[in-house]
Every structure is written in structure tokens, then in C-alpha cells.
Write a structure and sequence with these properties.
The chain has 99 residues and is mostly helical. It has helices at residues 14-22, 27-73, 78-84, 89-98. Helix 1 (14-22) runs antiparallel to helix 2 and helix 2 crosses helix 3 (78-84). The N and C termini lie far apart (65 Å).
């Protein structure tokens, strides 16, 4: 029968992990620790993904504000403002639609 700690079973499927954990006296505790670790990893990945999305949205919002500002203060077209800000040509249609 396989027995081991949580680190030793991390590559097994869930049912195998349960059977290994239940094979020793601390099995239930190990399983709780394993599920807690999975939960914490999911939380961390979700937070990181949310932060990256927030940064991207904030950057886009700032860029749109800068484009608008140049259009008003310099009396430029959206295309001129985006050129001055070095917006990639492949993104200009997307940003123009959001102005």
C-alpha cells in the first residue's frame, strides 16, 4: 500500500490521493492540508490574474484620456493624437471606437 505525505502525492489524481491519505493515521489531516493548499493556490492565481487585468484596464483608460486630452488641447484628430502617443497602428481602430 502506498503511504506518504502531501508533497509525495501531488502528482496523483484525486482518488489516488484520497486513498494514499487514508492509508495512514494522519490521512484526513493531510487531505485537509492538501485541499487548503489547492484553495490557497487558486486564490493567489485569481488575485494575480485580477491584478493583471486591472493594470491592463487602467493603462487603457489612461491612454484613452491622453488621446482625448491631445484632441482637445492641440485640436488634433484621434489619428494624430494616437500617432503622437505611438499607439500601434493595429490598435488604433479599437481605441478610436472607444473614444
Amino acid at each position: 500500500m502506498l503511504t506518504g505525505n502531501v508533497e509525495a502525492v501531488e502528482h496523483y489524481d484525486l482518488m489516488t490521493t484520497v486513498m494514499i491519505c487514508l492509508g495512514n493515521r494522519r490521512g484526513i489531516s493531510s487531505m485537509c492540508n492538501l485541499s487548503e493548499g489547492v484553495w490557497q493556490k487558486g486564490i493567489q492565481e485569481g488575485m494575480q490574474q485580477g491584478m493583471q487585468q486591472g493594470i491592463a484596464e487602467g493603462s487603457e483608460k489612461t491612454l484613452l484620456e491622453d488621446i482625448r486630452s491631445l484632441m482637445v488641447t492641440m485640436k488634433w484628430t484621434a489619428e494624430q493624437a494616437m500617432a503622437a502617443l505611438r499607439v500601434p497602428e493595429t490598435k488604433r481602430t479599437e481605441y478610436a471606437a472607444k473614444l
